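Researcher: Excuse me, tokens okay?
***
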Amino acid sequence: MDSVKIFRTRKFSNTKSSYGSKGFTLLEVLIVLGIMAVLITFSAGRIRKQENNIKSVARKFLVLVKEVRNRARLQNATYRIVLHMDPGSGAHRYWVEKSNGPQLVDPKEILTPPKSGTLEEEKKKPPTFQVDKGVLKKEQELPSGLYFGSVDVLGFETPFTEGDAYIHFFSEGTVQTAAIQVTDKKKLTWTLVINPITGQTDIVPKAVTLKDLQR
């Protein structure tokens, strides 16, 4: 009889211990909730910061496009904004270049390297475009964590995702149609769409291409 009581006591005691080990105290729950709150606050703050950075980039491009278009008309020259996307270092920068006068732009020539045997001759020629510091005194780098997702320029079959992309501004006041995606490669992507006639830059708060806009 005594042995039976002892057995039952031990069985109950083991069950209680097992139940207690699987449960959470109020303090543990509060600690977990506190950690979650900190992470959510940090994540929300980071997203807001990137949103503000994208807005800042968009505002700068609105002013830059308008200024470059005006200079091309007033100085009777072809300008271009160069968007540099380096897949190695991850650096994404942009600057402005100017030609000596009006230039016709052929997309095929931009993508085609010099023919064999003419490289030395090409080196001797003065460059058609030179960096112009009248608009931007130096190269501008995108804020940390932001990138040019793609640069879609009219006349090219596929968007640029690495290397240099060019958006040309002509002396007549026209501009190459372009859709520039600025992204954090996570949740945020805005597209800057440049109108070819007015030079007006529209902001679309999502990723779009020129083909999307033509539908």
